[in-house]
Design brief:
heterodimer, A: 264 residues, alpha/beta, six-stranded mixed sheet, four-stranded antiparallel sheet, 9 helices, 36% helix, B: 306 residues, mainly alpha, 3% strand, binds adenosine-5'-triphosphate, binds magnesium ion
Chain lengths: 264, 306
């Protein structure tokens, strides 16, 4: 069992709360005790060198990976578990799927469904999972497409779109589930430089609209402009966290300094 | 060396009006000639052979033989449906993390791929010897020989055997789909099973269909084995006829024509199935089908291209 008492409940207004999160792949400990609170409406950018565990942490938040130790709460629920009295029961696949409905995710390599049109990609979740009516889901999808600047591209297939357009469809697909939190894992890293801007613009718009976002990124400019807080990860731990002006402008930790001097 | 080659290169560059002599493909011409000769020889020998072509033509439309190829086609379809269902289920079971589940699937494949179909058919047909009665206590009870008719036994036997082969094809299809697809599906709240059904399998179909198409054609021919357990398919019917009239080759040629016809039909079906699952696989529009092209030539159906 985990050292954290089962009855511990999140305090304050934090939407996401990670407590002492550890994750190992076999003998290789990738996350070494992560603590993080993200408030509703907040945008937190995760920075860090390759292999520092950013993706792994993000994937733990929506239970694509199970944590080895520690606990994560999203919206008052323990991720991957159901609390009954004083005990935690591991969720079945079905229950875990239900929990994920409220957490959107945008991947580095888009992962759009290539055999479906843009519209089908977006309405698949709402119709299949949330049992929304198709007409309603389609109307909402068209609105979302307009919002990400892709009005009228409903019937294209993903392969007929540029990388930047595909990533914006992926964002619309995540938004269609009306999530309370969206996780972004290096959403612009697979894009040609001239396409990065259009995706970041959409994300800035989302941030302004009050969506809670955790963004793994190497785009320091974006973090500076949009993030409420920036966390710097090194070797499976968050070594520095704070407002972008502090962490990016006046880093304290040696690793943060070294990293920033390399990317800036 | 140098002094000899350099001037030659220079001269070639200076004279622009050199005549181009295309490369002669002597080997190809000789090869093509040999093939044509062989075909002519084959044609001549068949026309001189003691084949009674009017008999072939006469038997081509005999009802029992048409029924026979009909039985073969129906048996193919039934066995392939059983095979596909078992193949998909056992492929998913083999990919399961539960060792019991994947072990059962492995055992099924091991047994049914490891013994001859012919043997399996005989065993199904003779199952009544060891289980004379079949049923669920209190609900249903029957004699095995009434239930396991030759056709039913053949369907089950061929289907189970096919499933063991299809399983591996389906498994490789599933493995060919990027893991990120399942994760993206889970991220919008799908269960693993929903992700498999809606996202992974439709994409795996592109890899699965060509080998399965091959197996459908193989199955059509394997149905002739079912005659061993008393199914009246085309080959056994033809044998019944030639035992009486002794027109052996003529009747076998009739069977060959029917098999070829049925296989051609199935290949057309495969072509359209592959097109259907190729949706979104390329950034370009799919090329028109031969049928659409034909319509396009005669200008009767403009919509075929749009
Ligand atoms: N499924 C896995 N099995 C084994 N090891 C893994 C697995 N996933 C990640 N790792 C290891 O965990 C470590 C952290 O990986 P992670 O992908 O979280 O890093 P990251 O910070 O996202 O790096 P990047 O910037 O390159 O994406 C790496 O050393 C990686 O090899
Ligand atoms: Mg990563």
């Amino acid at each position: 069992m985990s050292p954290v008492a089962a009855s511990t409940t999140p305090t304050g207004t934090a939407l996401v709360r990670a407590e002492n999160v550890h994750k190992s792949f076999g003998p290789n400990e990738v996350l070494k005790g992560i603590n993080l609170e993200v408030n509703a409406g907040e945008v937190v950018c995760l920075l860090g060198a390759s292999g520092s565990g950013k993706s792994t942490f993000l994937r733990c938040i929506n239970h694509l990976e199970t944590v080895s130790n520690g606990r994560i709460w999203v919206g008052g629920n323990v991720v991957g578990y159901r609390q009954v009295g004083n005990s935690l029961h591991e969720l079945s696949d079905k229950e875990a799927a239900r929990q994920r409905q409220h957490i959107g995710m945008v991947f580095q390599r888009f992962n759009l469904f290539p055999h479906m049109t843009v519209l089908e990609n977006i309405i698949e979740g709402p119709v299949l999972v949330k049992k929304e009516r198709a007409t309603e889901a389609k109307r909402h999808a068209s609105e979302l497409l307009a919002r990400v600047g892709l009005a009228g591209r409903e019937n294209s297939y993903p392969r007929q779109l540029s990388g930047g357009q595909q990533q914006r469809v992926a964002i619309a697909r995540a938004l269609a589930m009306k999530p309370e939190l969206i996780l972004f894992d290096e959403p612009t890293s697979a894009l040609d430089p001239e396409l990065v801007g259009e995706v970041l613009d959409v994300m800035k718009d989302l941030a302004r609209s009050g969506l809670t976002m955790i963004v793994v990124t190497h785009e320091i400019g974006f973090a500076k402009e949009v993030a409420d807080r920036v966390a710097f990860m090194h070797n499976g731990q968050i070594v520095e966290i704070g407002p972008p002006a502090e962490v990016l402008g006046n880093p304290q930790h040696e690793r943060t300094k070294a990293f920033l001097s390399r990317v800036l | 060396m140098n002094t000899e080659t350099e001037p030659r290169v220079a001269r070639a560059a200076e004279s622009p009006e050199l005549k181009i002599v295309p490369r002669r493909h002597i080997g190809r011409w000789v090869g093509a000639g040999a093939v044509v000769l062989l075909l002519v020889w084959l044609g001549v020998s068949f026309s001189r052979a003691q084949i009674d072509w009017p008999t072939v033509q006469q038997y081509l439309t005999v009802p029992v033989l048409i029924q026979g190829i009909g039985v073969a086609i129906v048996l193919t379809i039934v066995a392939m449906v059983i095979g596909l269902v078992l193949g998909v289920v056992s492929a998913i079971m083999r990919l399961s993390k539960n060792p019991v589940t994947s072990g059962v699937a492995w055992l099924y494949i091991w047994v049914f791929r490891g013994t001859p179909v012919y043997l399996q058919l005989l065993m199904w047909f003779n199952l009544a010897l060891i289980f004379p009665y079949i049923g669920i206590p209190g609900i249903f009870q029957g004699r095995m020989i009434d239930i396991l008719t030759p056709f039913v036994a053949a369907s089950i036997g061929l289907g189970l055997n096919q499933g063991a082969y299809t399983s591996e094809v389906v498994r490789s299809g599933i493995l060919s789909v990027d893991e990120g697809q399942t994760e993206a599906a889970q991220a919008v709240g799908m269960t693993r099973l929903q992700a498999m059904r809606r996202i992974v399998l439709p994409q795996a179909m592109r890899v699965i269909i060509p080998p399965v198409g091959n197996e459908v054609i193989g199955m059509l021919k394997t149905t002739s084995l079912a005659s061993a357990i008393g199914v009246s398919e085309i080959l056994s019917e033809a044998q019944h006829i030639y035992y009486v009239n002794n027109r052996i080759m003529e009747l076998l040629i009739v069977c060959a024509v029917w098999y070829l016809g049925a296989v051609s039909l199935l290949s057309i079906g495969q072509y359209y199935l592959e097109r259907f699952f190729a949706k979104g696989s390329s950034s370009k529009q799919l090329p028109p089908t031969p049928f659409q092209r034909l319509l396009g030539i005669f200008g009767t159906n403009r919509k075929a291209f749009s």
